[in-house]
Amino acid sequence: MNPPNRSVRNAFSLLELLSGSPDGLVLARLVEASGLPKTTVHRLLGTLTDLDIVCQTGTRYHLNARWQRFGGDQFTAPIVSRDGQTLAGLTLRTRGPVSCDQTAARLRRLVADLASAVSRQIRAS
Prior knowledge:
This protein is α+β, with helices and mostly antiparallel strands. The protein is built from 5 helices and 5 strands, in the order αβααββαββα. It comes from Actinophytocola oryzae.
C-alpha cells in the first residue's frame, strides 16, 4: 500500500488544527502548530479556500460553516462578572458528532453548570 500523498496529509493536518479552533487561527500560528513551512501552509490554505472548505476573515482562517460539523459538536456557556458582563465563554468540543439527544442535553447542562460555578467564583472575589 502506498503512503498517503503528503499534500493531502498536510491539508488534513491544517483542517484538524482549524477544527479545534472555533475563533480561527492566524497564518503564523498554523505554521507553528503544524511544523510546516509558511509557503506550504499558505498554498494549502489558498487551495482549501478555493474549494470553499476554509474561509479567511481578516488575518484569521476558519473552517467554513458547512465543514465545521466534521469537527464534532460544540457546547458553549458564558462566564459572567459580578455586574453581569460576559467575560469569556466556556466551550466544550467533542471529537465527533453527538448523536444522542440525551447525551447532548447532559453535555449542555455540564458546560452551563461549570460556567455558572466559574462565574460565582469571579463574583465572590
